[in-house]
Amino acid sequence: MKEFIFTIDFLGSLSDWQNGWKEDQDKRRKIADQLVSQCQNLPIKFRNINEPCYRKRFINDGEVVSIVYYDNFFEGIASWTTNLNCGLDFKEMIRPDKKFAALFKHTPTEQEVIVNIIELWKDKDFVSAAEKVREDYPEKVKALFHFRDKQSEIILKSTLKGSEIENIVGISSSFDVLCDMAGIPEEEREKLSKEYVSNPDNILISIPIYASNKATRNAVKKAIARWKEKLSWAERNNIPIDWSNVGKENLDDIKHK
After folding, report:
1. What gap in Å lies between CA 90 and CA 65, rounded to an integer?
2. What is the phi/psi pair of residue 134, to 5°?
3. Which position among 38, 48, 113, 122 has the lowest Cβ density within 10 Å, counted as fewest Cβ atoms?
4. Model-level pTM?
5. Could you tell me how far CA 44 lies from the centroid of its own chain?
6. Are 55 and 101 in contact (CB under 8 A)?
7. Each residue of 133-166: b (16+ CB within 10 Å) or e?
8. How many CB atoms lie within 10 A of CB 227?
9. Do 96 and 61 form a contact (C-beta atoms < 8 A)?
């Protein structure tokens, strides 16, 4: 195969991706299209990863059914990381307009990898080409040099699965945290909570925390059980389910599937 050349267009598209899109999904898709096009002839060593990757994702209203119940929601091109701490610390813990945040763990197949940025920065030809472009057009690769490989970033064709949720972020009151720390059973907490709330000396604090892996798996199982129960009830009573609010994959994302 012809030797791959790290062109200014390739480097620019990678830098554009890392520069971000400020939650503008249309802009994200345009940048993703350019990146996929530039990466399609990359040598296989830059399109492979043999270890688990992590992605923290804020879940939109309606996506829970597709992700958790159907265990299959293709979100398009997205950044993952091999560094667990990078995944956990990515952006803020909560957003008021989102259901919750979930941390996914996935070991990609070769077909899913768009580009392994870690491997790029290990390659002397890539570094040399990037530095040459920075000398001539510094703004073109500004984000590329700002992030380098510090985020341990792997860009994937990304499918979110409930079975691969490692942790979830939720709001837990200080009361719940104290009960957990004290090992107080669930059945004893209602009475205590009423006493806690009625006490004028208490200051209620809500804090975002990651659930334990066990609590996360239990939450996923309970969500699936609730949906099965709902579907079974609807079938028994011959009542149609309203699927209009279920999150749907975007056509501009699906073309990369």
Report:
1. 24
2. -65, -35
3. 122
4. 0.82
5. 24
6. no
7. bbeeeeebbebbeebeeebbbbbbbbbbbbebbb
8. 16
9. no
